[in-house]
Amino acid sequence: MNELPRVLVVDDQPTNLLVVGGVLRESKKYRVSFAQSGEEALKLVDTLSPDLILLDVMMPGMGGLEVCEQLKKTPVLSAVPIIFLTAKSEAKDMVEGFEVGGADYITKPFEPAVLLARVEAHLQLYLYNQREEEMRSKERITSYQNGLTEMGASVLHNIGNALVGVNSRIAPIEGMATKMSDLGAALNKAYILLDEEGDQARVLQILDLGAKLLKEEYASVLKEDAMQLKASIYHVNEIIDAQRSLTTKGLMSSHFAVESMMADVTTLLDDELDKRKVRLLIESKGEIPEVFLPRSPLGQVVVNLVKNSYEAISERIKQNELPENEGKIQIRLMSEVAVDGESKKNSYWYFDVIDNGVGIAAADLDSVLLSGYSTKLSSAGLGLHSAANFSVAMGGELKVMSDGPNQGTQIRIRLPLECSRNCYQVRK
User: Which of 26-40, 98-112, 173-187, 371-385 shows the highest mean pLDDT?
Assistant: First the structure.
């Protein structure tokens, strides 16, 4: 059974508390609590979690206007409606109350019916907004959970790619082992020749060739293969550590510069972009402030989008619709800082990933974000669906734009500058 909404009545006069409390309790629609000073009210709100506050303006010590200001600075209480109770009725007094965050005024003495009507109207509006926010929160939580699952699948895909690199170095090393075995046999034969026939010239020739092979070819190749294997193993460990952290901690936010994250992404993708002869350009339109977001998952989102783009470019080249060496991906960074400049609460930044790949047909634009959707012509799939889920979980959005086949694709992600680990939660 749902509990009745709680109303906190704050007044320094016990008689007023009795009158107001009596009217509210007789309606049998509310739970009523009382405070006889502003200081007491501020101590009670954390434990009571009121749904509406009736607040006397004139009180000794901390007055109602100051109490309202303090409450509006508390995130979990900032949306709770505050109705002032006052004997003042001048316009300037009402304006002052609205300026500090009051929702309404009731002048003393008041009619019980007016009090109940005002309380009910503001409560219903507040509770409706709370239900809406809770629904949005559940959607963000679902997106968050889906994002974790799909990012895990993406991480496993990346591990598979890294292990392909490891496996590709095994065959050359095996071949080198065979060559070294053959060289050992040749040196053994040289020893026999020197021992049995005394053919010193041939032995010296074999020894000279063996020394050159060991020093100039075999050692160099093995050293290079060892370095590449170490790099691949290091990359696999990085992916595993990132996934382990994501699984145990969720989307943990940290402060970082977007440009720094983009530089890491470029380093990670350089080899594949070079192999495909695709250029990656990153540009900033204006200064991007430092953000407070989950860096590792966001970096993975960018990697997935760039991969979608270079695969779409390769497909277009394969279809002879784009010459080689003309593949291009552009990452464009922009910000939307709040006008007041005092906080990042209402400030956003966004980035576009733009390519000249195969593009997306108009009929497919509404489908590309669906889980499991993937066609060569859409340059979409798990990575794009996961990116959309991540964006929603962070309180942002993702848009897909294309003018059609062979016209390239533009993905735009808009995110808040700040999002804590619990950014998708609301007060219960």
Answer: 26-40
pLDDT digits (tens, 9 = 90+) for 97-135: 888 889 898 888 888 999 999 999 999 988 888 887 777
312 near 409, Cβ under 8 Å? yes
Q: What is the CA radius of gyration of the chain?
A: 34
Residues 6+ apart with CB under 8 A from 243: 151, 152, 155
Q: Do 56 and 11 contact (CB within 8 A), yes or no?
A: yes
- What span, in angstroms and rounded, lies between the C-alpha atoms of 296 and 239? 10
The pairing of strands 291-293 and 254-256 is antiparallel
> What's the DSSP call for residue 353?
E
For residue 33, count other CB atoms closer than 10 A to its CB.
18
Q: Which helix (H) or strand (E) holds 33?
A: strand 31-35
18 vs 24: CA distance, rounded Å: 10
CA–CA gap between residue 25 and residue 27 (Å, rounded): 5
Q: What is the pTM of this model?
A: 0.46
3-state helix, strand, coil in the chain (%, to 5): 55, 15, 30
d(CA 428, CA 137) in angstroms, rounded, equals 11
Distance CA 281, CA 266 (A): 9
Tokens of 48: 């009571």
Which class for 201: exposed (0-12), middle (13-18), buried (19 or more C-beta within 10 A)?
Answer: exposed
Report the DSSP pairing between strands 327-336 and 348-355: antiparallel
Q: State the DSSP H helix or E strand holding residue 307, giving kind and residue range, or none if neither.
A: helix 295-318
Q: Tokens at residue 278, please?
A: 């695709």
Residue 144 Cα distances to 156, 249, 253, 415, angstroms: 18, 13, 14, 14
Express each pLDDT in 296-331 by its tens digit. 788 888 988 998 899 999 999 999 999 988 999 999
On whether the CB atoms of residues 49 and 33 are closer than 8 A, the answer is no
Residue type, 56: D
- Is residue 361 within 8 Å of 315, Cβ to Cβ? no
Which tokens is 146 given? Answer: 């889906």
Which residue is it, tokens 């394969």?
A: 318
Max distance between CA atoms of the chain, in angstroms, equals: 127
Query: Both tokens of residue 206?
Result: 């074999």
